[in-house]
Amino acid sequence: TLGILPAQTPGSFLDPEMRAFLEENTEVSSSGHLTPEIRLRLLTPRCRFWQERADLWPYGDPFWAIYWPGGQALSRYILDNPDAVRTGSVLDLGSGCGATAIAAVMSGASQVLANDIDPIAGMAMVLNCELNNVKPFPILTKNIIDTELDNWDLIVLGDMFYDEQLANSLHPWLRKCSRTHGTKVLIGDPGRPQFLGHRIHGKLHKVVEYSLPESTRQENNGLTSSIVWSYQP
After folding, report:
1. Which of 22, 101, 156, 171 has its CB surrounded by the most CB atoms within 10 Å?
2. From CA 137, how far away is CA 98, in angstroms rounded?
3. Mean pLDDT estimate for the chain
4. Which domains are assigned to the chain?
């Protein structure tokens, strides 16, 4: 649990109008990513809003509709190394499409909580759980950085170090989670300059590096690989 912060049940995201919009304006995809065994509703070149004016999109920026390379690496690692999560509790921070949380469920985690500040991401996660025949996990659509957490065995976060202010908030919070509860932390990132140049980088141990599929490279300005890091404060 998160103590004073109750997670929403999956059913609370099932707004019929929103569901219909997401199903109409995303495409089910499993190819071109590091995890072909996970199917996701994503924004692809065949979708209307790939070319449409951004201001016509009726919700917040759909970051959840992209399978970002850091999340791909984390999900691949968890699927290949189920012992990293099996029978443990996993918090997926900045979950987006929910792929890493889904990978944790598939790999036998006993408790999974997905967190993203965008409530539309919560709807997308419910749809993606359905696509993969995974029982939906609790979802929390609030900013929990700097809050007091209960003891999670593992926190996973991908592609969260794109903004200096966010990174500066994440570092001390992750350090506190790790030192207070012994929580393990895995970070996925393709080597963005904001991440490589941040002071947290000196506290990381490289776990595994994956070569990115060509389509993911094209969507991410030519970045060629994505790395899973273990945070060791």
Report:
1. 101
2. 10
3. 91
4. 10-231 (3.40.50.150)
